[in-house]
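Moderator note: this is an archived Q&A kept for reference. The question asked for a predicted structure of one protein chain; the sequence and the answer are reproduced below.
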Amino acid sequence: MPRRLSFTQRLYATLLGVVAVGGWALALTSMANNGGLKEQLNAAEAELSTTQDRLESISLEFKSVNASLRKLTSTAGDYDQLSSELRSSKAELATVRRQITDAQQSLDDLKTQAATQTTLIAGDAPRYLTTTRARVRAAPTTNSAAVAIVPEGQTIEVLEIVEDGKWYKVGGVGYMFHELLVPSPPDGQ
């Protein structure tokens, strides 16, 4: 005959049964939750992969932008250097233009001197008469030293007219003010 279990044994067996059923229930619930966690893990891994792809794409764009920025910075430096060189070239051009203008003036002066010398050599220098006793000056100004004094009525050869016609270069010695001379009548009159 089967032996009857005592109350304590029955209570213990019932309690073990409840614990066993509870354990199975907990295990099944954990497994069900574990499946949800796997789905979340898979979704997170997919999102991580997408994020890594976007990060790599952004990194490439950043490198491209950085390269463009370096190129622009280099170009800006080149522009500054070219601007500086252009300013320097403009200054040099202005200097050369002044030198050309000075050289042209010197050339014009030399042409005038050559024409005067040619006239002197040919003996065709215009002749003037002094209207009064007059000083011949070292330069075409009344502030310059007197180098000679010419009596009234003296015939003088005018080699050059300077200072807008106000002074005459005379006799290869100096200058006389234009109001002190009048053209000499041609020979034979």
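Archived answer notes: Residues 7-122 form the longest helix (116 residues).
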